[in-house]
Fold this protein.
Amino acid sequence: MRIDKMLANLGFGSRKEVKKLLKDGAVTVNDKAVKDPKQHVDPEKDVVMLNGSVIEYKEFVYLMMNKPPGVLSATEDTRDETVIDLLELEDQVYEPFPVGRLDKDTEGLLLITNDGQLAHRLLSPKKHVPKTYFAVIEGEVTEADAEEFRKGVTLEDGYHTKPGELKILKSGLMSDIELTITEGKFHQVKRMFQAVGKRVVYLKRLTMGPLKLDETLELGEYRELTDEEIEMLMEYQS
């Protein structure tokens, strides 16, 4: 990879600005100053430094966010804040995108990456990747509801959902539940409960395939996935 392309890709400036950095002697490769923007480097083997600091190059970025309510699962929007707006500039330069969508008012686990192949595998309807949600429901959730969900419920537009695993944590005027589903239709969890005459008042995603929300992340915080988490996602077969 050309040194100017590598530096520009990492957000250290436009090609023109990067050429000035090179000309000024701010960049070294394996401890030797490099001024030619056309010089090729191997990001895996060569040690590239800018003003004395080592530059780590990576093709893909994998981030786990605890999505806060009120923020869109989108890359850009003219009116509302998006999950990408919450990222540091050093992560935005990789042009990542959210893998799937959480409703604006829904919290919890959101994977953000620029790895299109991984995103496709996780979102493909053929893969049936399970996602688990915690929800607070207005109305008493019963074992009869759990049985309905196991069969799949018919939504208001006539679509019959795939089976869902409904676990009742607390039942009463307000009920706490966990629900695992393997598809992601628009507002699906809310619509499934509407189909049995109840209303979701709080929704949080806990898992997506083998990936579990890091509960130490505050709302709006994110971190890079560990090597182990990335490996689990790469090897995951539902």
Residues 15-23 form the longest helix (9 residues). The helical segments are 3-9, 15-23, 89-92, 116-123, 143-151, 188-195, 227-235. The first strand starts at residue 27 and ends at 29.
